[in-house]
Amino acid sequence: MATDEKTSSNQPTASPALIEESISSVMTEKRKFPPPVEFSNSAHVSSMEEYEKLYAAAAEDPETYWAGLAEQFHWFKKWDSVLEWKTPYAKWFNGGKTNICYNAVDVHMNSWRKNKAAILWEGEEGDQRVLTYGELHRQVSKFANVLKIAGIKPGDRVAIYMGMVPELVIAVLACARVGAVHNVIFAGFSAHAITERVNDSRAKMVICCDGTRRRGSTINLKKIVDEAIVNTPSVRNVIVLKVTSETVSMHDGMDHWWHDLMGLAMDVSEPVEVDSEHPLFVLYTSGSTGKPKGILHTTAGYMVHAASSFKYVFDIKDEDIYWCTADVGWITGHSYMVYGPLLNGATLLMYEGAPNYPQWDRFWDIINRYKVTILYTAPTAIRAFIRAGNEWVTKHDLSSLRLLGTVGEPINPEAWMWYHRVVGQEKCPIVDTWWQTETGGIMVSPFPGATPTKPGTATRPLPGIMVDVVRKDGVSCNANEGGYLVIKKPWPSMLRTIYGDNERYEKTYWSEFNDMYFTGDGARKDEDGYIWIMGRVDDVVNVSGHRLGTSEVESALVSHEAVAEAAVVSRPDDIKGNSLVAFVTLKDEYEGDMKLRESLRNHVAKEIGPIAKPDEIRWAKGLPKTRSGKIMRRLLRELATSNEVKGDVTTLEDFGVLENLRDQEDE
Ligand code: WT7
Question: Where is the AMP-binding enzyme C-terminal domain (predicted)?
């Protein structure tokens, strides 16, 4: 899996037209899995009573709760106030001075962790590297000096466009060390996307690799950067890390080799003492209209929540080998590949390449060889593994695993069950973590030693996180009534604004429900207070007066034995208001024919009810996805309605898939 940019359907649209009557939830999942006793016994939080106590205390006095977590970090100067809140602008730990790189790396220099592995890296071709915390400290300090010599000052923006190599982590941490604001751009993006992001953030420097490997071939990243920076007046220098053996063109005065500069740099550098609210990074996520939004996160609040949520949700211990398969180009990579793990002194695994290279068992082979204990991946990857077949998984010894995680989309209960049975061998709790680029850290998730899980729900909010499901007038929904997911109180790792555009920030997140942050997601809360995400509100469809979350219909389809993946969209219909069109990818051994179409329709009718029966089913060899694996339902909607796609397709990963999805005659 690589993780990618949001599609239009992942944005709050702030359009009142969408906020209509309530949403009918039709999911009837009843299975429940208590945490294994052995897991609970050694967990940081080992019972629901303990969780409830923490939650209640945090709800009663959030500032004391967050301050307690913040105490655990190194502060050059302690804060004056925990929270200053003028809706919708927050200042957390104001008056304090700290440095997140110091807390992630330097603090380990005076303990045994100095020689502990920080990063276990594996390249796509099988090459391996290990960086201890001590070595990471040395490299980050040197690269911080490189940045300083190149004239980077606190507050300057630095764009980073690199493949998944340890130097990407080093570059990110070095920026934080000198107070520069990093802007990581996923290495799968085009020159145009780089230009847009660099110009919006007015980045002074670009750090890139000469190239990156993907499924056995090399992509020349430097060439893409050359093309991008023709139109970026703010960029003064490009630093190029040599990864491949291919020749790239270097421009005098502008381009510098990473190794040349590192060769000259000293390995001692004092971290800059920055204010708590000093900007830490900008990360772009695309909007439904207009240019991508630069989500701005600041230092101290982000640090406190990224670190503490990592500790509790992943129940991290010093012995763990933790693997997050996301790319650092996405928020998951920022919070739970770099900052969360390092702030906790954990050992993380970083893999450069594709999950199916050279074969479909690459992940399971890695888990066995490194004895990975915690795996954090995405539903799209899980569904791809299901499709590839169990034997790729079961031929490897996965007994080291003790905890599994998922993020990015609602996980279909059947995919959850497969993850639980085949990968977790029924002994690993699954943490289904709900959050967003904007939230900076996990908001809703089980505590793995405490929370009984149910397939398909992210369960309960973390202590200090006040989420609710509300009607369009902001009043809380009843149990099991579908509505809009909001966050009622500020939290430390919340976005501070959209870079350079306060107006858009206010309109997108704060205009729909007074004084509450609108997530853009539809959800329901069940009788246990568990949150079931029903997808983006833009993906809610109205059929015969019932508003249905398309993800629920998709889950019903995926629970049929023949189905690997499904996407459901609506098409205007004179009679029903809307009719449902399902795009279905079958498991390899199944053939799409009329009989199967009928069988799928009946299956949905049985699982949900006749109202949710798709009116049309189209067979899809593949579905149009963003590079992070999110299905681009907007394109499918266009296809279902007009049989062609006119909208923006720049974030689409594989253009070929659209061709196969046009009208199909019943065979
Ligand atoms: C949107 C945010 C947060 C890291 C990756 C995505 C969806 C995310 C879940 C989950 C159901 C989920 C939501 C959310 N989403 N996690 N566990 N269950 N839906 O970050 O690109 O900012 O996307 O992803 O719709 O709003 P992002």
Answer: 552-630
Quote the pLDDT of residue 659.
67
| Rounded-to-integer distance, Cα 175 and Cα 186, Å | 17
Same domain? 130 vs 265: yes
Q: Which of 288, 324, 436 to mutate to test the pocket of ligand 1 (most atoms within 8 A of CB)?
A: 436
pLDDT of residue 654: 67
pLDDT at position 485 over 90: yes
The residue whose CA has the least distance to atom 8 of ligand 1 is: 408
User: Do 143 and 243 fall within a single domain?
Assistant: yes
What residues pair up with 298 in beta bridges, in sequence order? Answer: 279
Give the structural domain span for 620: 544-662
Contacts for 659 with CB less than 8 Å, ≥ 6 apart? none
* pTM for the structure as a whole: 0.88
CATH code for the domain in which residue 385 is found: 3.40.50.12780
Residue 254 lies in a domain: yes
Instruction: Indicate whether 3 pLDDT > 50.
Output: no
**Candidates 3, 327, 533: which one to mutate for ligand 1, based on the most atoms within 8 Å of Cβ?**
533
Token pair listed for 124? 């796509």
| Whether the CB of 487 sits within 6 Å of ligand 1 | no
Of 466, 501, 534, the domain-final residue: 466
Spell out the alpha helix ranges (H) of 336-470. Answer: 340-343, 362-370, 379-388, 391-394, 413-418
- Please report whether residue 149 resides in a domain: yes
How high is the mean pLDDT of the chain?
A: 91
Distance CA 274, CA 178 (A): 9
Domain edge (last residue) among 436, 466, 496: 466
